[in-house]
UniProtKB/TrEMBL annotation:
Pfam families in UniProt: DUF4247
Organism: Cohnella xylanilytica
Stretches the record annotates as Disordered: 160-179, 185-262
Compositional bias of kind Low complexity: 228-238
Biased composition, class Polar residues, residue ranges: 213-223
Name the UniProt record assigns to this protein: DUF4247 domain-containing protein
């Protein structure tokens, strides 16, 4: 009975430790963080739509790479600190530095019709292929009247030819394409504060700080009383109280054999 109990207790002990290890390692793994760029301004008129989002504290190349990693564009302009374009089948994304807040980038999501009616082809020539520019502006007409728009970041000096930007309404936000990107997460570690002994990031399960109230390397002891019973502290190496040993009982009238009581 004692042997089966010890085996069961040891198995339970190992199961609890294994479950704890799996939980801690899972908590330390990479975490995917979803970050949404806020919608800042809208200009729309039928099929001519432009939605502007703000990427605070991010450079133009960083934002362009993040967006391109989410959805591969049909065409992408070369890396540039001020302007980059991502061309898709139904829209053109213009990532640009904010002239008023140079530490931020602006993400302008334009329909191709909006680009056709407002942008300057000469401005786009520095970023997009001539074949794409030709297909965009071939329906403008022989008059050659083009806009001089160069993006929301240059709104004051080069406003759009049609419409004006305004703060997004509830309906604008609902209709706008969601500019939600998924970035790679980081491994966060808890600080080594006084109340965080032995936690993740401070040694974890395999390097826990020992309780100052327990002396290092101490073990329990068992002392025998005269009647054979045990007393004292429990040994740290085992969970089960040692079986009490008594003086063997002899059978009266037998052949002098000693039998141990079961």
């Amino acid at each position: 009975m004692d042997r089966r109990w010890r085996r069961w207790a040891s198995g339970l002990h190992l199961t609890v430790i294994f479950a704890l290890i799996v939980t801690l390692l899972s908590a330390c793994g990479s975490v995917n963080v979803k970050e949404t760029y806020p919608l800042e301004s809208v200009n729309k008129n039928g099929s001519e739509t432009s939605y502007v989002y703000r990427a605070a504290g991010e450079t133009v190349p960083e934002v362009a790479k993040t967006l391109a990693d989410q959805k591969k564009p049909e065409q992408q302009s070369k890396e540039d600190p001020d302007h980059m374009f991502l061309v898709y089948s139904d829209q053109i994304i213009h990532v640009q530095k904010d002239e008023n807040n140079p530490e931020d980038s602006l993400i302008e999501v334009d329909s191709k019709e909006y680009v056709r009616q407002n942008y300057s082809p000469s401005f786009l020539e520095g970023y997009l292929l001539a074949s794409l520019i030709g297909s965009l502006f071939d329906s403008v007409g022989p008059s050659g009247r083009y806009g001089d728009y160069r993006g929301y970041g240059s709104l004051n000096s080069h406003p759009p030819a049609k419409g004006s930007y305004h703060a997004p309404t509830a309906s604008d936000t609902k209709a706008a394409p969601p500019m939600t990107v998924q970035k790679k997460g980081s491994i966060f570690k808890r600080g080594t504060t006084s109340g965080d002994d032995g936690g993740v990031g401070s040694g974890g399960l395999f390097n826990k700080k020992k309780d100052s109230t327990v002396s290092s390397g101490s073990k329990g002891t068992i002392t025998r009383n005269k009647d054979g019973s045990s007393s004292g502290s429990k040994s740290s190496s085992g969970w089960i109280k040692p079986r009490k040993s008594t003086t063997p009982k002899t059978k009266v009238g037998g052949f002098g054999k000693i039998r141990r009581r079961r």
